[in-house]
Amino acid sequence: MIPRHQTVLFIVLLAASAIMGVLLWNQLRRSHDRLLHGADSAPTHAPEVAAAEQATLMVANDADNTVQPRLLTLPLPQNPEARARAILGKLLDLYATPIATHPVPGGANSISQVFLVPIANSKGSTTSNGPDLAVVNLTDSFVASHPSGLETESLTVLSICSTLDANLPRVKEVRFLVDGQPRATLAGHADLTRTYLTNEDAVPAGGSRP
Q1: Domain annotation covers residue 210
Q2: Which residues does 185 contact at the CB level (< 8 Å), separation at least 6?
């Protein structure tokens, strides 16, 4: 004779198996119906792709310590801050290539964010059409791997400022942060504590811009 507790256990296990079977069958039926009707988990609308536009990159050249314009067609978002980050990211991508005229490792990921802040006039007010201050937030890894030297550091700063000037005319001044914090220099020479003008075109030998 089967003990009572074993009979109860058998009934419970049998009922659980039946319930599991029903749930599994329902799940399979739903999956089959989704396949028949072509349903899937893809979004209804494809993600928006930024339109391709022409951008002017002011590319540094270590051979003659100059910054020269280069026209490229890039997918550029309409948001000014995202646009600035995309353009500067492409500039740093050029510097990270094996044939770069100004070799600096890191590429586009070296730009964490670009913030645009309205500049107040002498009366303390701002306008919707500028001028703006661009705050360029670099990554610590980019700064740590940047070649040291006054000329090479100054060319990087100059090319970033000039590229912003060429593509975002409202931007008149630039400040730099590193991982969201102030940093004294880029790699020991170029001053990152000051505000740069986007239309400055030279760095005095032996020092930072005035």
Answers
A1: no
A2: 153, 191, 192
Total domains in the chain come to 1
Domain span holding position 149:
55-197
- 8 contact partners, CB below 8 Å, separation of at least 6: none
DSSP 110: G
H helix or E strand, kind and range, residue 12: helix 4-36
Residue with tokens 């007010």: 125
CA nearest to 153, candidates 122, 209, 125, 191: 191
Q: What is the pTM of this model?
A: 0.73
Report CA torsion sign: 127, 132, 133, 135.
Answer: positive
Centre a 10 Å sphere on the Cβ of residue 195 and count the other Cβ atoms it contains: 12
Pairing mode, strands 196-197 and 111-118:
unpaired
Is residue 33 included in any domain, yes or no?
no
Residue 177 vs residues 85, 108, 131, 162, 171: alpha-carbon distances, Å: 14, 16, 20, 18, 17
- Tell me the per-residue pLDDT of 6-45, one tens digit each, with 9 for 90 and over: 676 667 666 666 676 666 666 656 655 655 555 444 455 5
